[in-house]
UniProtKB/TrEMBL annotation:
Homodimer. Its cofactor is a divalent metal cation. Residues 48-355 form the Gcp-like domain. It catalyses: L-threonylcarbamoyladenylate + adenosine(37) in tRNA = N(6)-L-threonylcarbamoyladenosine(37) in tRNA + AMP + H(+). This is N(6)-L-threonylcarbamoyladenine synthase. SUPFAM superfamilies: Actin-like ATPase domain (SSF53067). It is found in: Mitochondrion. Required for the formation of a threonylcarbamoyl group on adenosine at position 37 (t(6)A37) in mitochondrial tRNAs that read codons beginning with adenine. Probably involved in the transfer of the threonylcarbamoyl moiety of threonylcarbamoyl-AMP (TC-AMP) to the N6 group of A37. Involved in mitochondrial genome maintenance. It comes from the Eukaryota. Keywords: Acyltransferase, Metal-binding, Mitochondrion, Transferase, tRNA processing.
């Protein structure tokens, strides 16, 4: 078993575009994988010299979800201004920038294509090196920018609008995938259910993302147990996630309540805050179960030395303080350190891409002089897939009691 892991890890990584990068650097990062046009300039010490972010959130909120051609148009309209504002803020000349790092995978193809085109254009016209970036790799590494005590290997939970992953980060470009969502991502489930509950019809929630709206609504609930939920995948002894079942349970509760209370088209069900509290609690319990099993698997195979035992949580849904509180309970109990980047670096941004560029520059991984053939990829798994090994380990866990998280 351990042999399989070692064999998988030690596969050689061949980089055709090798380029020497044996010095400090200043990197410009571009992010356009979904609905945020982001740019930042970061140096080798992790100083953010300039940053700019244009969020399309309000446009997509009005449309009831992201419509890819609209997202693409907005990226196209904003990219130049976002990059120029970043450079102006950094107050440096473009000649001081060593390379341009750009998200090329995974993400919405129409959105990714704008960033890639602009990143390549900058490199061609200014004679710079290009560093293609994996969006999830940068979510995983962001925490190292502010905290250089986070050394490889460490465990990462990535929860966002498009992704849900549990990985061991072994190096900048080396990951072991322990679990992933078999259907929706947490942020996606929060967004869809917030819409179905019509939370944005209340002024206080009108401009929030689905996840923010559910978290706020849940905090106003008085009884998280009013609506019954079952936690998904209890019988599956792996680290995969499933949010579709929880979503269906929420949906059924709403339909029942709408009938029971004769709720009008634009109105909300009377106990919507309790429903949000139960929904958020069930998602949180599910995430904690999968993390607990992942930690057990890591222990079983000695994948992280005791002095480095750290769980990093990142991605947009990691902004959720309730989820963070529950993960803290799990980590305290098991003796792990929990690390979360500042919330504005958990959601999509240019800083994490520029920092990923710095991490790759330091190790000369994928720093390219010839980048014509680089293309976007809609889907791109992160790391070596260990899900079969995790499943085969068949680890039973005695679930850590989370306590009453709404009260403490
Ligand atoms: O990482 P991100 O900016 O974009 C993706 O790569 O998906 O994540 C956006 C997601 C949205 O689905 C949003 O609802 C969710 O992050 N989110 C939250 C919170 N804030 C943002 N989910 C739960 N609780 C929050 N406080
Ligand atoms: Zn993201």
């Amino acid at each position: 078993m351990l042999k399989t892991i070692i064999r998988k890890i030690s596969r050689p990584l061949i980089n055709k575009h090798f380029y020497s990068t044996n010095r400090n650097a200043i990197i410009l990062g571009i992010e356009t994988s979904c609905d945020d046009t982001g740019c930042a300039i970061v140096d080798s010490e992790g100083h953010i010299l300039g940053e700019c972010l244009n969020s399309q959130h309000l446009v997509h909120l009005r449309n009831g979800g992201i419509i890819p051609p609209i997202a693409q148009n907005l990226h196209r309209q904003n990219i130049e201004n976002v990059v120029n504002t970043t450079i102006k803020q950094a107050n440096i000349d473009f000649s001081q920038i060593d390379a341009v790092a750009t998200t090329v995978k995974p993400g919405l193809p129409l959105s990714l294509s704008i960033g890639l085109k602009y990143g390549k254009h900058l490199c061609r016209t200014k004679g710079k090196l290009f560093i293609p970036i994996h969006h999830m790799e940068s979510h995983a590494l962001t925490c190292r920018m502010h905290d250089n005590s986070i050394e490889f290997p460490f465990l990462v939970l990535l929860i966002s609008g498009g992704h849900c992953l549990l990985v061991v980060a072994q190096d900048v470009d080396k990951f072991l995938l322990l679990g992933e969502s078999i259907d929706d991502a947490p942020g996606e489930a929060f967004d869809k259910m917030a819409r179905r509950m019509k939370l944005m019809n209340l002024p206080e929630f009108a401009t929030l993302s689905g996840g923010q709206a559910i978290e706020l609504a849940a905090s106003k609930g008085t009884d998280a147990e009013q609506f019954k939920f079952s936690v998904p995948l209890l019988q599956y002894k792996n680290c995969n996630f499933s949010l579709a079942g929880i979503k269906n349970q929420v949906w059924r509760h709403i339909v029942q309540q709408e009938k029971l209370h004769n709720v009008e088209a634009d109105a909300l069900i009377p106990d919507v805050f309790n429903l949000c509290a139960g929904f958020q609690l069930t998602v949180t319990r599910h995430l904690c179960h999968r993390v607990q099993r992942a930690i057990e698997f890591v222990k079983l195979h000695n994948l992280i030395p005791e002095e480095k035992q750290t769980l990093v949580v990142s991605g947009g849904a990691a902004c959720n303080n309730f989820i963070n509180k529950a993960l803290q309970v799990v980590c305290n109990e098991i003796g792990y350190r929990l690390v979360r980047p500042p919330p504005k670096l958990c959601t999509d941004n240019g800083v994490m891409i520029a920092w990923n560029g710095i991490e790759r520059w330091r190790k000369n991984l994928g720093v390219m002089k010839d980048f014509d053939s680089v293309d976007i990829e809609k889907r791109s798994p992160l790391g070596i897939n260990m899900i079969k090994e995790v499943t085969d380990a068949h680890i039973s866990c005695k679930w850590i009691k989370l306590g009453n998280l709404y009260e403490t």
